[in-house]
Amino acid sequence: MQLTVSKHVAFFQRHLILLPNPYEEHDSERMALGFFCLLGLDLLNALDKISEEDRESWIEWIYNNYVLLYSKETKKSYAGFRGFATGSTPILNEQEPQLAATSFAISNLLLLGDNLSRIDKQAVEQFLSLCQLPGGHFKSTASTMCCDQDMRQLYLATTIATLLNISFPHTKLSLQYIQKCQNYEGGFSLTPYAEAHAGATFCALASLKLLVNSIPTQKQLGLDQTSVTKPYEFQDYIPDKKRLLLWLINRQQSSGGFNGRTNKDHDTCYSYWVQGSLQLLGASQFISQQDVKSFLLCQTQHKFGGFSKIPGEFPDVLHSSLGLYALAFNDKANFPEVEHAICLPTRRMPIKK
Amino acid sequence: MDALEPELEKILDFEQYGTLTPIAQDDGVNPLAKINYSKEYEQGMAYFRALAAKQEYSIRAFNLTCFLIMHNPAHYTVWAYRFQVLNHIPELIPQELAWLDSVIEDFQKNYQVWHHRQKLLGITKDYKHELEFTKDMFASDAKNYHVWSYRLWILQSFQDYTEELSLTSYLLEDDVYNNSAWNHRFYVLFESNAKLERSLQDELDFLNDKLSKSPDNQSAWNYLSGILKKVGPNQLGGIANQLEKQLPSSNRFLLEFLAEYDPTRSKVIYEKLANEVDTDNQLLWNWMIQQVPRT
C-alpha cells in the first residue's frame, strides 16, 4: 500500500482554506490546528504550495496574537501568544499568553519562514517563569485562574525555551517532577501517580532530552561543558530505563498500530508518541517498522486524504500530521529529516548562534 | 429571568441580548486556521464579547455561556467567565452541579469541565458528591483518564480512601483488563499514605486469582512487577511458585516476571524467550540478556 501524497497535500490545503464546522469545538486551539496543517504540508515537501500572500497574511495573523504584558508582581514585562483572537477588549484571561499557543505560534512562524525577530525573547523568558509552579511543572498561563497543569505544559515550556534559545526557569525542579511521573508500569503519567500514558511519556522524555542537552540548562545544573566525554546523558535521569523500554515496546499491537495505555485500543497518534519516545532512547529497532507502516497506510490512511484516529473514521488534521510524522521517522527517501524531541522537520529548526 | 432549562441550551433567543452591540471577532483579513462557524456560534460569541466588555455577570450572561459551551466545550475563556458569574450569583451553584452532571456525556473527553468541577469543589467542599459522581462516570467509560485523575486529586486533597478498594475490585470484576483501575489500586495500596487494613498476602491472593483468569493480562502482570519492585522478592515466593505451576511455560509474561523475580534464572529465561517463546522480539530479549549483570 502506498502513501497517497497528492491526496494528503490536497487534504491539508482544503483545511487551510477553511476548517469544516466540526472544528468549531476546537476554536480555542486554532494556533494548533494551523500547526498541524502546515506541518503536514512540510512533511510532504509541499509548503511551496502556499501563496506568498497567504504566507505573509498568516504571519501577520500570528503576530496579531502576540501579547506583551506587564506583571505588577514582578515589575517585569512578559510575552507570548494567545490561542485565538476574540476581540480588542480584554476578557478575563483571554488576552493572556498561553503556553500551547506560544509553542505552536513559534513553530508556525518557523514553518512559514519568519525569523522570530519580533518576539521579545527576554519577555518570553519571564512568561515561562510566571507559568512555572513550585513543583517544577507548569500552568498554561500566568494567570491564577487556570488549572491545566501537567506534563504537557512542561513539554511546551521546554519547546519554547529551546526554539527561542532562552533560559528555562528552575530546571532541577522540572527534572524532579518528570522523574516523579514515571510510574510502576514504566511509562510516564501526566501527573504523579496517574496512569502511564504514551503522550505523557513522549512529553517527559523529550523534555528531559531538551533540558539536559541545552546549554543554559547545563549552566544551571553546573555541568562541565568543556570535558571531552559527556558527563551527562538525559537517559541517566530516567529512574527505570529497562521498565520504560519494555512498556514502550508493549504499546505496539498486533495491528502494527500502537495504543497509549496498557490494554487500550490502537490510535494513529500513538504511532508518533511511542516511536518518538523510542527514537529518543535510540531503541526503535525493537519494534516492527513494517507493521508500523502497514497499520498507517492500510488501516488509517483515508481515501479522501489525511489519516483518521482509528480505522473507519474520518480523518482530522492532528492524526493526519502525526501519522505522516510517524512514517517520516523511518523513511528518509520520501520525507525530510525530522527532529525527535521537537515536532518539526530539522530544516525548520532555528540555527543557534 | 431564570437560568436556562437544559433542553433550551442548544438554542438561544438572541432577542434578550438586543440592547448589546455585538463585537465581531478581530481575526484580520486572511487568518490562519479559519473555521466554518455556525451562524449561532458566531452570533453567540459576538454577544459574549459585548457582555464581557461590560463585565456583566448576569443570568443572561450565564445562559449564553451554557449555549457557547455546548458548541465549544473547550472554550476556556467562556468557562472562566461562567465561573465568575457563579461567584457573583452563588445561588446558581446547586443548579450548576446538577447541570454539569447532566451534560457530562457531551464533555467526557474535555479538560475544561474537570477544571470547572475542581474549582466548584473548592467552594462546596462536597467531595463525597464528587466521588459518587466519578463512580457514575465509570459506568459509561471506566477508563476515562480525566475522571481517574480527578478522583486521584480528590483523594489527595481530602484524604478519604475508604471506598477505593471496593471500587477497584468492583470495576476489575467487570473488566479485569481495566488498566486504570489497576493503576488506581496500586497507588492507593502502595504509594498513597492511606493506611488501609489489607495484608500483602491478601492482595497477592487477589492478584493470583485475576491472573489465573486472564493469564495474558498485561495490566495484572505490570501490577505484580510493580509490587516486586516495591517490596522485593522475599514475600513473593508463594505467588511465583503458584503461577509457575498453574500457567503454561510458554506464557511470555510469566517468563518475564520469573526472570525479574529470580535474577539467577534471567539469562536462561531470556534465551528461551529469544529462541522459542517470543522470537518476534528476539532483538529485545538478546538485549535483555546483555543487561543481566555478570556474576
From TrEMBL, chain A:
Family membership noted in the UniProt record: Belongs to the protein prenyltransferase subunit beta family.
A Pfam family of this chain: Prenyltrans
Annotated organism of origin: Schizosaccharomyces octosporus (strain yFS286) (Fission yeast)
UniProt keyword list: Metal-binding, Prenyltransferase, Repeat, Transferase, Zinc
GO molecular function per UniProt: CAAX-protein geranylgeranyltransferase activity; metal ion binding
Superkingdom of origin organism: Eukaryota
Official protein name in the record: Geranylgeranyltransferase I beta subunit Cwg2
Cellular-component GO terms for this entry: CAAX-protein geranylgeranyltransferase complex
Domain Prenyltransferase alpha-alpha toroid as annotated: residue spans: 3-343
Cofactor: Zn(2+)
SUPFAM superfamilies xrefs: Terpenoid cyclases/Protein prenyltransferases
From TrEMBL, chain B:
SUPFAM superfamilies named in the record: Protein prenylyltransferase (SSF48439)
Keywords noted in UniProt: Magnesium, Prenyltransferase, Repeat, Transferase
GO-annotated molecular function: CAAX-protein geranylgeranyltransferase activity; protein farnesyltransferase activity
Enzyme class: transferase
Listed InterPro entries: Prenyl_trans_a
Family: Belongs to the protein prenyltransferase subunit alpha family.
Name of the featured protein: Protein farnesyltransferase/geranylgeranyltransferase type-1 subunit alpha
